Amino acid sequence: MTAFALRGARWRRRAAPYLLLSPAFALMALLVLLPVASAANMSFYNYVLTRPWAYRFVGLDNYARALADPIFVQAIGVTAVWIAGVVGLQLAIGLLFALVLNENIRFRGALRSLVLVPWATPSVICAFIFMWLLDGNHGIVNAILLGLGVIAQPIQWLSTPGVSLWAAIIALVWHGAPFFAVMLLAGLQTISDEYYEAAEIDGAGAWQRFRYVTFPLLLPTMLVTVLLRVIWTANHVEIPLVMTQGGPANSATTLAILTIVTARGRLDYGYAASLSMWLAALLAVVAVAYLRHRARRLPT
Amino acid sequence: MKRSDRRTFLKTASALAVAGASQSFPSPAIAQGVRITMWHWLTRPDDAVWAGLLAEWNRRRPDLQVAVDHVPLAEFRQKALTADQSGAPPDVSRIHPAWLGELDALDALEPLDQRVDGWTHRRDLFDEAIRVCRPMSSRPMIMLPILGQWVYLAYYRNDWLQEAGLGVPGTWDEYLVAAKAMTRPPDRFGFSMRGGIQGWAHGWVNMFYAYGLSIVDERGGIGVNSAQAIERNQWFLDLYRVHRVTAPSAINDGFPQIAALWRAGRAGSFFHGVHAQSSFTETAGDRVIGAPVPRGSNAWTRADAIGMSIWRKSRNKNAAWEFLSWLLEPEQHARINLNPLEPNVPALRSVAARADYQGNRFMQAALAQRESWGLLPYWHPYWAEMADVDWHPLFQRALQGQITSKQMLDQLAQGFERAGMPRRR
Amino acid sequence: MLAASIRLGAAMVLIWTLAPFLWALLTSFTPENEITGEARLPSHLSFDNYVYAWRATPLPLYFLNTLIVAGLTTALSIACSISAAYSFSRYRFAGRGALILGLLVIYLFPATLLVIPLFPIMRTLGLLDSYLGLVLAHATHAVPFCVWMLTGYFDAIPRDLEEAAELDGATPFGAFRRVTLPLAMPGVAATAIFAFLYSWQEYLFVLFFTTGEAVRTLPVGLQVFLSGELDVRWGAINAQSVITTVPVVALFMLLQRHFVRGLTSGALKG
Question: Do B42 and C119 touch (CB under 8 A)?
Answer without folding.
Answer: no
